[in-house]
Amino acid sequence: MKPETHLIEPQRKLKGLTGHTRVVGVIGDPVEHSRSPQMHNAAFAKAGLDYVYVPFHVRPDDLAQAIAGFKAINVVGINVTLPHKQAVIPSLTSISREAELIGAVNTLTFRDEGIHGDNTDAPGALRALEENGDMSVPVGEDVVVLGAGGAARAVVVALALAGVASITIANRTVERAVSLAEEMGRKTGISMHGMGLTDAQLSVAVRQSMLLINTSTASMDTRIPLLVSADWLQPNTIVYDIVYTPPVTPLMQAASERGCQTLGGIGMLVHQGAIAFEKWTGVTPCTETMHQALSI
Ligand SMILES: NC(=O)c1ccc[n+]([C@@H]2O[C@H](COP(=O)([O-])OP(=O)(O)OC[C@H]3O[C@@H](n4cnc5c(N)ncnc54)[C@H](OP(=O)(O)O)[C@@H]3O)[C@@H](O)[C@H]2O)c1
Fold this sequence. Notes:
This protein has helices spanning 36-47, 63-72, 97-102, 121-130, 150-162, 174-188, 200-208, 250-257, 266-281, 287-294, and strands at 22-28, 51-57, 77-80, 94-95, 107-111, 114-118, 142-146, 166-171, 191-196, 211-214, 238-241, 262-263. With 296 residues, the protein is of the alpha/beta class. The chain has two domains: 22-120 and 272-294, 3-Layer(aba) Sandwich (Rossmann fold), CATH 3.40.50; 136-260, NAD(P)-binding Rossmann-like Domain (Rossmann fold, 3-Layer(aba) Sandwich).
């Protein structure tokens, strides 16, 4: 169902909250670090929408009560961040197929008939890739994903549903990679292989891959050596690091020096937010405004 558009007259500047203002927000524990309020509030102002996006600190023990409370007071939508992405699911009426496969929800939409959960990280990751000129998901080709945490789950589901031929998942803790590959291979029917970062097969997989996506937090610390050798990167491989701090990670730097096209994580951050914005308002936000508001 298309959400009701809540537009203010274009000539009227937002002067503050009124009785008409619609409320959305984000829950987390902690939540203070979230950049979503600045990103969404800038986009609401740009679109002339009388909405406000508020961060709410919700502790795990209060989660179910908080969700019921949001429904009771007519909140339109809520983003969900750590540690609530899985725990919130029992409080929902329905969840999308992607969220079900991933096993985590990051966007709630409150409707008359109940509370719906989506995971916008998966489509956000692909939209960010595809908005970049000649970059796209290599349908029918082999891809490599580094990391096997929460973000890897979303990326693997997105790639599988987009139709890649096979996914190699390589992770520091080999058991997590093997278990994720087994679970997602079974659920999606796509061929997946889990392995450790020191597995000899990883160099073969990277050399043959059209797309390498890093989801490991190792990229956030520039002192950590690259998880894959730069020598394995072929110039026709797209290297996509979903980490957004720093904006250019050591992996992206090394890949760029090898002649690869590279992409960082800020676009995914913007697009996962833009998809939530669309679900709540029915309006396509200005992603350039969202990008600028992040000022990363
Ligand atoms: N751009 C976006 O919109 C977006 C969205 C979601 C997440 N992210 C980013 O993605 C990153 C991962 O998030 P997450 O939620 O998946 O985190 P997570 O669940 O904690 O997973 C962390 C992953 O990084 C690996 N790792 C950590 N330190 C490592 C090291 N020193 N060497 C090798 N591997 C290491 C872990 O391996 P082990 O299993 O061995 O511990 C695990 O696979 C974060 O930087 C996050 O900000 C970006």
